[in-house]
Amino acid sequence: MTVFWVGFLVLVVILLALDLGVFHRDAHAVSLKEATGWTFVWITLGLSFTGFVWAMFEYGWGGAQVVDARGQPMEMASGAGALAATRYVTAYLLEKSLSVDNIFVIALVFGQFKVEARHRHRVLFWGVLGAILMRGTMLLSGVWLLQKFEWLFYIFGAYLIYTGLKLFVPEKGEVEGEDEGPDTGFIGKLRRWFNVAPDEVDHGGHFFVRVDGKKMMSKLGLCLIVIEWMDLVFALDSIPAVLAVAPDSFIVFTSNIFAILGLRSLYFVLENAIHKFGEIRYALAIILTFIGVKLVIHSWVHVPNWISLTLIVISLGVAVGISLARQRARASER
User: Fold this and answer.
1) Given CA atoms 266, 269, 275, 279 in this order, what sign does their dihedral have?
2) Consecutive sets of 10 residues in the chain, 334 residues long: mean pLDDT of each?
3) Rg (Cα) of the chain, in Å, rounded?
């Protein structure tokens, strides 16, 4: 298995190097057409990897075996590839759907810091790189912990149920139609901790600048730290959810990384349309609650992964359909 881990990490490094060093070397505002094209590319790459996962586990390449929730190899005469592929697609789509909330917050952060459109891809690139390192560590640690301490299933399950049910109830700012970004008090503390340059200082797209001969963090660098912090907060929801549907360390890691790699282009596709899909929060609520229940009852009831995958696809499809129908209805009333 080591060769596949190394190979995948090398692939990620190559993709990131091509992204920033070749295709996006010059800072520019990403158009909707460009973002849509890159979103298609990333999703195609992520879903195409399903075929490799199927073959890897079906033929036992490198000793690959599907495992149960306790990390024990499952004795299967056939169908190991199909099970692994289903787990991969489920984890990939789950992380993609949960990233919608993350995109919404990123849009608010960019608005708060007044980040120019031409610099947003650079911030998101380094934000994604940090997310890969952080989430990779958390995911692999989570797999190990769940295999060692089974009672964590119930803790994670209860937390996901709580998070899911909470999404059904709009918060105060949402009821009043006001968008609130990260706490300004928290940002003020970060400014003092990291010695941030005044906002009027021209950062030129750099995270650090010199002011009167002193090296200081720019407003853009502070924005990156806030985005990384918000990703960590969202990871507390998404990581337990993903671990619930894919206990295999290689599957859960690769599916999450591919989902995160496409986050930047997806942001530029959705940044101006995110408010049109308000019903997605209820789809996420259903998904998180279902997976939480699945974790809690896993010792007594086995819920097949294809049911989780079907629920995710149907919930998101219905939510998007209702959102679009309501948008058309509002437009016809004007």
Assistant:
1) negative
2) 91 85 71 86 94 94 85 81 94 86 79 85 86 86 81 83 81 49 67 80 82 86 88 81 88 92 84 67 85 85 82 86 80 70
3) 21
Of the candidates 71, 106, 141, the residue with the CA atom closest to the CA atom of residue 230: 106
The DSSP result for 208-231, as a single string, is EEEETTEEEE-HHHHHHHHHHHHH
Integer Cα distance of 47 and 51 in angstroms: 8
- What is the distance of C-alpha 137 from the center of its chain? 14
pLDDT, tens digit (0-9, with 9 covering 90-100), for 197-241: 887 777 778 888 888 888 888 888 999 998 888 888 778 778 888
**Which tokens is 136 given?**
């990779």
Sign, Cα dihedral of 42, 46, 52, 55: negative
* Sequence-distant contacts of 65-69: CB under 8 A, at least 24 apart: 66/248, 67/247, 67/248, 68/247, 69/146, 69/150, 69/153, 69/247, 69/298
Q: Please give the DSSP secondary-structure letter assigned to residue 61.
A: G
Q: What is the pLDDT of residue 187?
A: 74
Alpha-helix runs per DSSP H in 19-169: 32-58, 80-113, 117-148, 152-167
Angle at 264 between CA 5 and CA 94, to 5 degrees: 65
In this structure, are residues 282 and 167 in contact, taking their beta carbons and an 8 Å threshold?
Answer: yes
- Predicted local distance difference test score (pLDDT) of residue 273: 61
Q: Which residue has the tokens 């692999």?
A: 140
Place of tokens 């010059």: 26
Per-domain residue ranges of the chain: 2-149+173-274
Euclidean distance between CA atoms 34 and 161, whole angstroms: 38
- Rounded Cα gap, residues 49 and 51, in angstroms: 5
Sign of CA dihedral 20, 25, 30, 36: negative
Q: From CA 271, how far away is CA 227, in angstroms rounded?
A: 15
Contact call for residues 232 and 186 (beta carbons, < 8 A): no
Displacement of CA 239 from its chain's centroid (Å)? 9
